[in-house]
Amino acid sequence: MLINATQKAKTMHARRNPNLAISSAAYSQLSPSVTSATFLSPTVASRRNLLSPSPPVSPSLPSLIPRHGKKPTSSNHSRLLKRLLIGFCVIILLAWLILRQIYTHHPLDTSYEEDGGEEWEMVGGNNLPKEPSAIVVQDVKGNSRWAVSIPATYDFPLKPAQYREICTQSMELSKSLREQAQASSSMAKRMLAYYQQDQYYIDVQEAEEQGLLPPSKAQGKPKGFVEDLGQSLGEPFCDRTLTYVMETEDAGFGNTLIRLWMSFGLAMKENRTFFIDDSKWPYGQYSSYFAPPPSAHCNPPPTSHMVPCPHNARHIVVSAATVRQTFGHAFTEEWEDPTKMRVARQHNIFDFIRVGYEALFVLRPDDAKYVTERSAEIYGPVAEHGGISIGIHVRRGDKHPYEYQYQKDYIPLDRYVDAAREIYIERIENAGGKSKKKRSLWNENKLFSRHTASKLVLASDDPVVYDTPELGPNTIRAQERIILATKATLEAAQGKKNPWIDEITGWEGGFYRDVFFSLGRPVGNANDISKLDNTEVPEGAMGIRELVGRAYMLDLAVLSKADTMVCTVSSIGCRLLAVMMGWDSAIVKGNWKNVDGDFDWKGIVW
Questions:
Q1: Which of 571, 427, 578, 551 lies closest to 477, judged by CA?
Q2: Which residues, 6 or more positions from 557, have their beta carbon under 8 angstroms from its beta carbon?
Q3: What is the pLDDT of residues 167-191, one digit of tens each?
Q4: What is the side-by-side strand order in the sheet with 133-138?
Q5: Using CA atoms, how far apart are residues 295 and 276, in angstroms rounded to an integer?
Q6: What is the residue extent of each domain of the chain?
């Protein structure tokens, strides 16, 4: 028998919760009611004067006292029949319950409520559900186990909502089975530790070997899998895998990148083969930005074996939809160092992302060549003349700071400049042994002296920032291969106004989600954004998205080679730059500086 968790329709009527019980103490407070039979009873002394010894006045009225020597009426027979009928029904009900107990072996809780307030119920049956879901099966020993069933008719990857629903169902089924097995305990824990084995979970492969699930057919590598450096034709199936699905409802490139790198590092730590799927990535194909990933040397398993949870499954899927299950509280408790303080607690998590960066951040050949040449052009003279390069990353757009007073605005550029000035004074001015008197004569209106070899290297999603006077004359762009232009720049480059174009839109203000999804799309107003189908993106629109993504990658690649860095930790790009600089340089030596409050570096924020 199979039992799967399904969501109730919202239109269904509310069902009584079987877990609720009514205390018998409530009934003890009720006093017996006085009935009409008690009021007319001849045994009540206060009512005997109502009875007359003479016959009734009217022969049509019945006597209040039964006649002597006659049997009661036939009402006793009807009562006896009712009692026999009730007893028979009770016997039938008990027999049905006993038979049901024998054939179902272990009953499950009939309902539960998810954290979000949605009601769920366990549905029993002998057929597999038609949709991907968590189910309960009986193993060869007759014990109840839970597994994940993904029908072969579904393509890989599933929709984000389906992955989230499977994980929710899995957590509830696991908790329900543990509560039944631990009936003596007050309550079973809702979540297990990160690497704690769930003894009631049976992997898809084992369930198929025991005949609990139908066997899966080998379909080869899914179409959306990124081709790696090697050829896996003829190779055996991988024993354990982690597949990262580059699918997200978020328009930001950085979120996908940091999760991709951490997933790779986690896979290497757990000795899993790593795969990437880019079939539903809003930025297009992985190969448009990066070289192929390392070779797997084995073939991925059937897609029905790749499940989003639990984490101890042989083949797991990680995506934006399951980031809370993979990198949530349990992951943090497992990998944070409790013996350290502040950012030092994050060392292990930092290493996961660093491993992914070193293995996967290999730009496509033409972009990689440009980064090498541009870095030599910028940083070569600085190092040659004993100067220092200070990278500045300014994120605006729809990303606002953590600091309370700027939560609805942006960190002022003066704060970036002040932080860069402090770095310059500490590393150059103080290192040169200048006296305090000479340092006080230093012109604070300019960041560096006129002939210094030190440089500010700037990258920002807002092109207006490059022209601001606060940053001084020694500020240069990180890269000039792909530039996000302002409206004024576009109009100047166009020359004569095109009568067929109503208005030219630039990148003033920075990167916004709705602007990104509307690139190259027929959008008339803001309400049209929600109606866009992001599963089918026109070729022209995808080409513009790729330019935006490549510009972001080039900015990070060139900027990360600076000696020091100033940025806001609320920005994912800022946290990525710390990883690209390395733990020793960014954290230990303090070459990475956050100007968004007193917050420390942190990995994935969900």
A1: 551
A2: 361, 363, 367, 371, 479
A3: 999 988 888 888 887 764 555 455 6
A4: 111-113, 119-125, 2-7, 133-138, 144-149
A5: 11
A6: 1-6+82-219, 241-360, 376-568
